[in-house]
Amino acid sequence: MTGPTIVISPAPTANGDLHLGHLAGPFLAADVYTRYARSAGREVLFGTGVQDTSTYVATTAHRLGIDAQALVERSAKEVEATLAALGIAVDAFTGWEERFTSFVTRVVADLRAKGAVRLRPMPFPYSTRTGEYLVDGHVAGTCPVCLADSCAGLCESCGHAVTAGELLDPRSTRDPEDVLEIREVEVLVLPLERYRQRLRAHFADAAGVLRPHAAQVLDELLAQPLPDFPVTYPIGWGIPAPELPGQVINPNAEPVAWTMYCALLAAENRGLEPGSEDALLRTDAHARVVYFLGIDNIHPFAISGLAMLLALGEDYALPNLFLTNEFYELRHEKFSTSRGHLVWGRDLATQVPRDLIRFHLASNSPELQRTSFSREELVALTRTRLVEPWNRVAAKADAWVWRGTLPISERGRADALRVVDRFRVAYELPGFSLHRATETLTQQLARLDRMTVTEGGDFCHQIDVLVRCAAPILIDLAATALAGSDMLPGTDLREVARRTVIEPVRLPRLQPVEV
């Protein structure tokens, strides 16, 4: 018995819209995989949303001089609009709804009732000027692991969790001149060391499933004793911690509850009735959870997140598919909202056809190392690798339109099957790769472009199969080229490739873009 595949892209912070750095990593990859898996007849639940509890909401609202809740609501609308503009179709989009926050509260209360979390003094920087404790986005300093400049919470450079009190040379991000003291506060903590050996065994069994950087980070984290993980913070912005006045739940302690809730909401929106909030993550659901996430999110989802699942009980299935990506940069510098060094996804979609954006971001995907965006490269790459060869191929196919049904030879069917198999290698888990999928598309277009057409049936058949294989990426081209066809979810592409006849149709053309 097989349950649904739950595809999760971690919710971005609700402090602004999505730029290309967000889209090029987890969002596009999750959408392409979801479209592919559904075309193969699988039940897929794709969820994301916005995280309104992050301290970066409060710091951004302060910098902009606006109300934090107003920023959250505006950001949620912007993120949803940008996902739609790029054709990223999610089944569940979570936000600040009470149904979710109450569930998070119940999860933490349950952990406390089980004795899985406990009160323990932890050090936090304290502002003597404002009388506030500083955590995560409120405080920056030097990472005690890799010595990179980092905010508290998670180090983007090495992937380690860094509690605010551990930062070297801490400084307030709001006022770097503020005098800080280190004070201890009793907060709820999850003793991660209790679960380290089980996590090590879990990821040892998943050898070969993780991408190299993720495997390296997890090996490093699990090779030494794990520090206690703060489940609550002594601050005011966030979900109030149960029975701990003046404290909120650490946003990085939300991933397990959020994954459960996200899966539930996606199932409901697709007409399923999974039951309780946590039903789809229980072993008897036989679901497969797939995370598409940035490498900097590996700790809250794969370390503290899985430890929390273990703490909740034995009947939860531990995910092992964490498809990480590295950072996507703009002209080889990190995207920066404060410096205006960015390209908003929705803005680009008003200037460039979204199929070309999706093709370029997939070709340039930061799967294994940092990659960089430039408008000039988008123009050149899409023109030479997609637009011009496709238009030439489509023009050659026009000669066979209206000639009625054409036969497909045995060689034509065999070549089409080979194309299907090359795309399946790129799309299937755990080896899923946007880069290899677009590389396959580029290679097959170039082959068809070079082909001297003597058998119109073979040529048009291979174009048809190529469009179907590329449909998860080139969503608009596929929708137009295959309009009225039998391109339905569950259509076996290998069966399509084995067809013996085809009736050619006029194919759409792609429009190039300028710098």
Identify the notable features of this structure and list them briefly.
single chain; 515 residues; alpha/beta; Rossmann fold; Isoleucyl-tRNA Synthetase, Domain 1; 2 domains; 5-stranded parallel β-sheet; 4-stranded antiparallel β-sheet; 16 helices; elongated
Give a summary of the structure in a few sentences:
With 515 residues, this protein is an alpha/beta fold.
Describe this structure in words.
- This protein is an alpha/beta fold and 515 residues long.
- The protein has 2 domains: 5-346, 3-Layer(aba) Sandwich (Rossmann fold); 353-502, Isoleucyl-tRNA Synthetase, Domain 1, CATH 1.10.730.
- The chain has 16 helices and 21 strands.
- It has helices at residues 20-39, 55-64, 68-85, 98-113, 196-205, 212-222, 255-269, 298-312, 345-349, 354-363, 375-398, 410-427, 434-450, 456-470, 475-481, 493-497, and strands at residues 5-8, 44-49, 92-94, 118-127, 132-133, 139-142, 149-151, 153-154, 161-162, 168-172, 180-190, 229-230, 232-233, 248-249, 288-294, 321-325, 328-330, 333-334, 371-373, 406-407, 501-502.
- The strands form 7 sheets. Strands 3-2-1-15-16 form a 5-stranded parallel beta sheet, with helices on both faces.
- α6 (212-222) packs across α8 (298-312).
- The protein is elongated.
- The termini are far apart.
- The model has no long low-confidence stretch (mean pLDDT 93).
**How is the main sheet built?**
5 strands, parallel
CATH class categorisation of the largest domain: Alpha Beta
Tell me the distance between the termini: 52 Å
Tell me the helix content. 40-55%
CATH evolutionary superfamily of the largest domain: HUPs
Overall number of strands: 21
Number of domains: 2
